[in-house]
């Protein structure tokens, strides 16, 4: 018995020693530092891996799903709703139970969109409101009054500014006065006028939310799209300022900055070669992320695949590097656009421009 006890004691001490020695080794300052650095490095790698596959900024990606309770039974007015992202937004808002007002210049296309909507209040209760943002202020005032009168005068809860004017890519010096005026009339002046006319109604109710479909071109230089880019910078400035002035009075603003988006009905100006080589986000995904941003009350979001998303981060947080990068690819992008090639790939940095076949 004594011998057996001695054996058990030696085994226990031996096991304890084997455990204590590695533990003491790991607790040494140098080893702790190495372990900590390894963990930090692993975390950084994980973040970069997540970023490389992300199609939105980090805050947006953390929000999960749209909040249905923020949309259901609310009045949502969408401009540019006859095609592209506007049409998809209408379909997704309808599924979430929104009461929709859809606007565009083409009433026949609006009728088509309405017939395809499915939801708690769709298609039967969907209101069609033909609208041309190039109209004068008096005409737009009438349309705002109509929108406010729908649904027994409930008033507009969400104004989705989606209508936009975009011309084929051209250099900053090739832009005509007509193109300059047409772009700013729709993208800036008409949008701001509609907002000025609608906001007083929202202020009376002390609630209202503007969702502005801007662009990555409103956050970074966009070689070949100088005027379009300028119009989006202008819209961003106006709506961020509007929010800062009226937020405490119940007015919210979400500015959405999408990169290249794939559309199936001609709302984009991409050639077949561009569609084949450019990695564009789908309209469905863009609309989904837009609604997530709005229902979570985000102030500005970026929606894009890489490399455009990375460029937005660089210009925002490391402007010297970001603008250097854009200067490096600017001329190549203009040439690629003229040849209907890839205008969004990393190859532009090295002059590897895709040619149309």
UniProtKB/TrEMBL annotation:
The keyword Hydrolase does not apply. Residues 74-263 form the Ketoreductase domain. The chain crosses the membrane at residues 6-27, 34-52. Keywords: Membrane, Transmembrane, Transmembrane helix. It comes from the Eukaryota. InterPro entries: KR_dom (IPR057326), NAD(P)-bd_dom_sf (IPR036291), Sc_DH/Rdtase_CS (IPR020904), SDR_fam (IPR002347). Coiled coil: none annotated. Pfam families: adh_short. GO terms for cellular component: membrane. This is Dehydrogenase/reductase SDR family member 7 isoform X2. The keyword Transmembrane helix applies.
